[in-house]
Amino acid sequence: MALSLLHLPDRPSGVVVMVDAADVVAAALARLEFATLAADLKVDEEDAHDIGLLGRRVLDAIDWARKQPALEQMPVAVVGCAMGAPAALVAAAERPEVVHAVISHDGRPELAGEALPRVEAPTLLIVDAGDALAELNREAMRRMRAHVELEVASVAQVPALAAEWCQRYLWSMA
After folding, report:
1. Which domains does the chain have, with CATH numbers?
2. Is it the case that residue 40 has pLDDT exceeding 90?
3. Gap between the Cα atoms of 93 and 16, Å rounded
4. pTM for this structure?
5. DSSP 8-state secondary structure symbol assigned to residue 115
6. Sequence-ordered list of residues with C-beta below 8 angstroms from that of 64, at least 6 positions apart, any chain
7. CA–CA separation, 72 vs 15, rounded Å?
């Protein structure tokens, strides 16, 4: 996995691992003094749907971030878009002591499978208005034990929703 960009403010209030998420979301989080780490899940086409492999790559990004001196004690959120969404949930299930928030945008969280009931972090599922993914997100919600909310929103609303979720669940931990 490529770790493409780390934004590290002077006094970070948490770290957000961005998995195939939009730059505009990272910019909104950076304005709030969150450290952001853009992780790229590029894999061979045959591995593109291997959620276990993608989840391990997200774990690698989380572990790398936590090894940075300025971030080692920081609470972590993971924002996943598309196939990054189930990968983010798999990683959250594997690092419940570290991952304190998950945000899925335009993703297929139900593909996280057996990891869903093990996710402890509060999770925000965002789907676009009129998107066929809404029912698949509701299916994932029914399988989760963590606090989970579903927002139907336009793409323009996603940065504000992600920022508010991180403020709510990371600022109290920092």
Report:
1. 2-170 (3.40.50.1820)
2. no
3. 16
4. 0.94
5. G
6. 3, 37
7. 10
